[in-house]
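Q: Convert this sequence to C-alpha coordinates.
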Amino acid sequence: MPRTSMKVAAAVLAGGLSVAACSSTQLGAAAITGNTRISATTLTSQVANLNSAYATDKAKGISPQRPVGQETQQVLTWLILFRVYNEMATQHGITVTPAQADAERHSFNNEAEQSNVTPQQFWSAGAALPPDLLPQLYQAAAIQDAVVRQITGGKTPTTSAGKTAVDNQLSHQQCLAAKSLGINVNPQFGEYDYNGFEVVLAPSTLAANPSPSPSTKVVTTPPC
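A:
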Protein backbone atom coordinates (compact mmCIF):
# COMPACT_ATOMS: atom_id res chain seq x y z
CA MET A 1 0.00 0.00 0.00
CA PRO A 2 1.23 3.53 -0.78
CA ARG A 3 2.97 5.38 2.06
CA THR A 4 3.01 2.42 4.40
CA SER A 5 3.32 4.59 7.51
CA MET A 6 -0.35 5.46 6.88
CA LYS A 7 -1.58 2.35 8.69
CA VAL A 8 -5.09 1.91 7.39
CA ALA A 9 -7.39 -0.46 5.59
CA ALA A 10 -4.90 -3.27 5.07
CA ALA A 11 -2.64 -2.26 7.91
CA VAL A 12 -0.05 -3.48 9.98
CA LEU A 13 -8.06 -5.47 17.88
CA ALA A 14 -11.15 -8.80 24.49
CA GLY A 15 -11.25 -12.13 25.82
CA GLY A 16 -13.51 -13.62 23.16
CA LEU A 17 -15.38 -10.38 22.43
CA SER A 18 -14.07 -7.30 20.65
CA VAL A 19 -14.29 -3.86 22.19
CA ALA A 20 -16.71 -3.00 19.41
CA ALA A 21 -19.18 -5.63 20.58
CA CYS A 22 -19.25 -4.58 24.21
CA SER A 23 -21.97 -1.96 23.87
CA SER A 24 -25.04 -1.42 21.77
CA THR A 25 -24.95 0.53 18.54
CA GLN A 26 -27.41 3.32 17.86
CA LEU A 27 -30.19 2.46 15.45
CA GLY A 28 -29.18 3.16 11.86
CA ALA A 29 -25.49 3.54 12.71
CA ALA A 30 -22.73 1.56 11.07
CA ALA A 31 -20.37 2.65 13.84
CA ILE A 32 -20.13 5.02 16.79
CA THR A 33 -16.94 7.01 17.37
CA GLY A 34 -16.97 9.15 20.49
CA ASN A 35 -20.18 11.18 20.47
CA THR A 36 -20.75 10.90 16.72
CA ARG A 37 -22.08 8.23 14.44
CA ILE A 38 -21.26 6.95 10.99
CA SER A 39 -24.64 6.18 9.50
CA ALA A 40 -25.40 2.98 7.66
CA THR A 41 -26.68 5.17 4.83
CA THR A 42 -23.32 6.92 4.53
CA LEU A 43 -21.51 3.58 4.52
CA THR A 44 -23.81 2.12 1.87
CA SER A 45 -23.37 5.20 -0.31
CA GLN A 46 -19.58 5.10 -0.08
CA VAL A 47 -19.46 1.37 -0.81
CA ALA A 48 -21.50 2.09 -3.93
CA ASN A 49 -18.98 4.79 -4.85
CA LEU A 50 -16.13 2.32 -4.44
CA ASN A 51 -17.86 -0.31 -6.56
CA SER A 52 -18.50 2.30 -9.24
CA ALA A 53 -14.78 3.18 -9.17
CA TYR A 54 -13.94 -0.53 -9.46
CA ALA A 55 -16.11 -0.77 -12.58
CA THR A 56 -14.26 2.19 -14.10
CA ASP A 57 -10.90 0.68 -13.10
CA LYS A 58 -11.82 -2.66 -14.64
CA ALA A 59 -12.66 -0.97 -17.93
CA LYS A 60 -9.09 0.34 -17.91
CA GLY A 61 -7.66 -3.10 -17.15
CA ILE A 62 -6.94 -2.28 -13.49
CA SER A 63 -7.90 -4.87 -10.86
CA PRO A 64 -8.56 -4.22 -7.14
CA GLN A 65 -5.58 -5.06 -4.95
CA ARG A 66 -7.67 -5.54 -1.80
CA PRO A 67 -9.69 -8.69 -1.00
CA VAL A 68 -12.90 -8.73 -3.04
CA GLY A 69 -16.13 -9.19 -1.07
CA GLN A 70 -15.00 -7.13 1.92
CA GLU A 71 -15.74 -3.69 0.49
CA THR A 72 -18.07 -2.83 3.38
CA GLN A 73 -15.39 -3.49 5.98
CA GLN A 74 -12.73 -1.74 3.92
CA VAL A 75 -14.77 1.43 3.43
CA LEU A 76 -15.89 1.51 7.07
CA THR A 77 -12.22 1.20 8.04
CA TRP A 78 -11.49 4.41 6.13
CA LEU A 79 -14.48 6.26 7.59
CA ILE A 80 -13.37 5.35 11.12
CA LEU A 81 -9.72 6.09 10.37
CA PHE A 82 -10.52 9.68 9.46
CA ARG A 83 -12.37 10.10 12.78
CA VAL A 84 -9.34 8.67 14.60
CA TYR A 85 -6.95 11.05 12.87
CA ASN A 86 -9.20 14.01 13.70
CA GLU A 87 -9.04 12.88 17.33
CA MET A 88 -5.25 12.68 17.10
CA ALA A 89 -5.24 16.26 15.84
CA THR A 90 -7.35 17.36 18.80
CA GLN A 91 -5.16 15.52 21.30
CA HIS A 92 -1.98 17.02 19.83
CA GLY A 93 -3.29 20.53 19.28
CA ILE A 94 -2.93 20.25 15.50
CA THR A 95 -4.81 22.40 13.00
CA VAL A 96 -4.38 21.53 9.33
CA THR A 97 -4.40 24.40 6.85
CA PRO A 98 -5.77 24.12 3.30
CA ALA A 99 -2.22 24.57 2.02
CA GLN A 100 -0.97 21.59 4.05
CA ALA A 101 -3.78 19.36 2.79
CA ASP A 102 -3.11 20.53 -0.77
CA ALA A 103 0.57 19.67 -0.38
CA GLU A 104 -0.46 16.12 0.52
CA ARG A 105 -2.67 16.01 -2.56
CA HIS A 106 0.24 16.96 -4.77
CA SER A 107 2.48 14.36 -3.10
CA PHE A 108 -0.03 11.55 -3.59
CA ASN A 109 -0.76 12.65 -7.15
CA ASN A 110 2.95 12.40 -7.94
CA GLU A 111 2.96 8.82 -6.62
CA ALA A 112 -0.03 7.99 -8.84
CA GLU A 113 1.66 9.54 -11.85
CA GLN A 114 4.76 7.42 -11.25
CA SER A 115 2.51 4.36 -11.33
CA ASN A 116 0.89 5.53 -14.58
CA VAL A 117 -2.60 5.70 -13.08
CA THR A 118 -4.93 8.50 -12.02
CA PRO A 119 -5.13 9.44 -8.32
CA GLN A 120 -8.62 7.91 -8.20
CA GLN A 121 -7.36 4.61 -9.65
CA PHE A 122 -4.31 4.69 -7.38
CA TRP A 123 -6.48 4.79 -4.27
CA SER A 124 -9.57 2.86 -5.31
CA ALA A 125 -7.78 -0.10 -6.88
CA GLY A 126 -4.79 0.11 -4.55
CA ALA A 127 -6.46 0.72 -1.20
CA ALA A 128 -10.26 0.39 -1.51
CA LEU A 129 -10.75 4.12 -0.92
CA PRO A 130 -13.86 5.63 -2.55
CA PRO A 131 -12.83 8.63 -4.70
CA ASP A 132 -15.24 10.89 -2.80
CA LEU A 133 -13.10 10.45 0.31
CA LEU A 134 -9.83 11.69 -1.19
CA PRO A 135 -10.10 15.13 0.51
CA GLN A 136 -10.38 13.39 3.89
CA LEU A 137 -7.30 11.34 3.02
CA TYR A 138 -5.27 14.50 2.38
CA GLN A 139 -6.45 15.94 5.70
CA ALA A 140 -5.48 12.78 7.57
CA ALA A 141 -2.08 12.63 5.87
CA ALA A 142 -1.36 16.22 6.91
CA ILE A 143 -2.32 15.36 10.49
CA GLN A 144 0.00 12.36 10.39
CA ASP A 145 2.89 14.48 9.15
CA ALA A 146 2.29 16.97 11.96
CA VAL A 147 2.23 14.22 14.59
CA VAL A 148 5.45 12.77 13.19
CA ARG A 149 7.10 16.19 13.41
CA GLN A 150 6.12 16.35 17.07
CA ILE A 151 7.52 12.88 17.68
CA THR A 152 10.83 13.60 15.94
CA GLY A 153 11.21 17.24 16.87
CA GLY A 154 11.22 17.99 13.17
CA LYS A 155 14.27 15.81 12.50
CA THR A 156 14.09 13.10 9.85
CA PRO A 157 15.27 9.68 11.12
CA THR A 158 18.40 8.57 9.30
CA THR A 159 18.52 4.92 10.39
CA SER A 160 16.19 1.97 9.98
CA ALA A 161 15.89 1.67 13.76
CA GLY A 162 15.00 5.34 14.02
CA LYS A 163 12.30 5.03 11.37
CA THR A 164 10.87 1.95 13.11
CA ALA A 165 10.78 3.82 16.42
CA VAL A 166 8.85 6.67 14.81
CA ASP A 167 6.37 4.24 13.22
CA ASN A 168 5.86 2.56 16.60
CA GLN A 169 5.24 5.91 18.29
CA LEU A 170 2.79 6.88 15.55
CA SER A 171 0.91 3.59 15.96
CA HIS A 172 0.82 4.16 19.72
CA GLN A 173 -0.68 7.62 19.32
CA GLN A 174 -3.19 6.29 16.79
CA CYS A 175 -4.18 3.53 19.19
CA LEU A 176 -4.65 6.00 22.05
CA ALA A 177 -6.86 8.16 19.86
CA ALA A 178 -8.91 5.16 18.71
CA LYS A 179 -9.41 3.89 22.25
CA SER A 180 -10.44 7.34 23.47
CA LEU A 181 -13.26 7.29 20.91
CA GLY A 182 -14.60 3.98 22.24
CA ILE A 183 -15.18 2.74 18.71
CA ASN A 184 -18.32 0.62 18.48
CA VAL A 185 -19.00 -1.12 15.18
CA ASN A 186 -22.44 -2.46 14.39
CA PRO A 187 -21.98 -6.28 14.44
CA GLN A 188 -23.84 -6.38 11.13
CA PHE A 189 -20.75 -4.88 9.54
CA GLY A 190 -17.99 -6.55 11.58
CA GLU A 191 -15.67 -5.73 14.48
CA TYR A 192 -12.94 -3.16 15.06
CA ASP A 193 -9.41 -4.56 15.26
CA TYR A 194 -7.10 -2.21 17.18
CA ASN A 195 -3.99 -4.12 16.12
CA GLY A 196 -4.55 -3.28 12.46
CA PHE A 197 -6.83 -0.26 12.94
CA GLU A 198 -9.37 -1.89 10.66
CA VAL A 199 -12.86 -3.33 10.57
CA VAL A 200 -12.78 -7.10 10.15
CA LEU A 201 -15.43 -9.70 9.51
CA ALA A 202 -17.00 -10.96 12.73
CA PRO A 203 -16.66 -14.71 13.46
CA SER A 204 -19.77 -16.74 12.72
CA THR A 205 -21.91 -17.59 15.75
CA LEU A 206 -23.67 -20.47 13.97
CA ALA A 207 -23.18 -23.89 15.56
CA ALA A 208 -22.67 -25.36 12.10
CA ASN A 209 -19.72 -23.03 11.55
CA PRO A 210 -17.86 -22.73 14.89
CA SER A 211 -14.52 -21.72 13.31
CA PRO A 212 -13.74 -18.37 11.69
CA SER A 213 -13.40 -18.37 7.93
CA PRO A 214 -9.92 -17.76 6.48
CA SER A 215 -10.87 -14.10 5.89
CA THR A 216 -12.01 -13.63 9.50
CA LYS A 217 -9.46 -12.31 11.99
CA VAL A 218 -9.44 -12.98 15.73
CA VAL A 219 -9.79 -9.65 17.52
CA THR A 220 -7.48 -9.21 20.49
CA THR A 221 -6.98 -6.75 23.33
CA PRO A 222 -5.80 -3.25 22.28
CA PRO A 223 -2.03 -2.98 22.78
CA CYS A 224 -1.87 0.60 24.04
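The longest strand covers residues 29-33.
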